[in-house]
Design a protein that fits this description.
Oligomer: single chain
Number of domains: 1
Strand order of the largest sheet: 1-2
Strand content: 5-15%
Largest sheet: 2 strands, antiparallel
Structural class: mainly alpha
Distance between the termini: 30 Å
Order of helices and strands: HHHEEHEEHHHH
């Protein structure tokens, strides 16, 4: 596994999304009554802001498999760690929200992720009662590691729970990691990716041109 790939994946959310006054006004005007209200068009501006916030902090990777996810909003899903159907009071609790890929979100679904049920409107202040790796509280690599074949290997019970509930042993996931690792390990591709993400890419482009010239020689 390449250094760049591991660095991209080794994040922890240290700044939760803070609901703005505009967000609060929307929620007050349109109170949440049932879990399916989450998808209401009135809440779309809030969902979009939450998605953008965590997508950036999470280095554009899924909270559970840690693989890159597409920037199209249909593919970057705002995920409720404690499922919204189980706890309506946490539906807009931003400590309960991360972004994930569709496959991890779908696999996790409505599964119970806590060993102790928290009191109403009192979200846990740390990850001790969570059975799943929590993007706001847990260091991912304290609980999981990647083997030489890019498969996921649990280091703790929490890691094992996350692999099981998010189906991190699903067909094709290790191969996907291998492909991404190969691209990250290619210096040319790595340079191109840096240029795409750079605010001032001109110097990097010139350096890449020189590198390509050397390949032709």
């Amino acid at each position: 596994m390449t250094r760049l790939l591991i660095e991209r994946e080794a994040w922890i959310i240290n700044e939760k999304y803070a609901l703005s006054q505009e967000d609060l006004d929307i929620l007050q005007e349109h109170p949440v009554k049932v879990a399916k209200d989450w998808s209401k068009k009135e809440y779309k501006p809030i969902r979009d802001r939450i998605r953008a916030h965590y997508f950036s902090i999470q280095n554009k990777t899924c909270s559970y498999c840690r693989l890159p996810i597409n920037e199209g909003t249909d593919n970057v899903e705002v995920e409720h760690i404690i499922d919204k159907n189980r706890r309506l009071d946490f539906i807009f609790e931003t400590l309960n929200l991360v972004v994930s890929c569709h496959k991890c979100n779908f696999s996790k679904s409505k599964k119970e992720v806590m060993s102790v049920c928290p009191p109403e409107n009192t979200y846990p202040i740390n990850g001790t009662t969570f059975n799943i790796i929590h993007g706001h509280y847990d260091n991912y690599f304290d609980h999981l590691e990647f083997l030489a074949n890019s498969s996921y290997h649990a280091l703790t019970d929490k890691g094992e729970f996350t692999i099981d509930k998010c189906k991190l042993d699903r067909v094709g996931l290790a191969e996907q990691r291998e492909r991404i690792s190969m691209y990250e390990n290619d210096s040319i591709i790595s340079d191109v990716l840096e240029i795409k993400n750079s605010v001032n890419p001109n110097e990097k482009i010139e350096a890449l041109i020189e590198k390509l010239k050397q390949i032709r020689q």
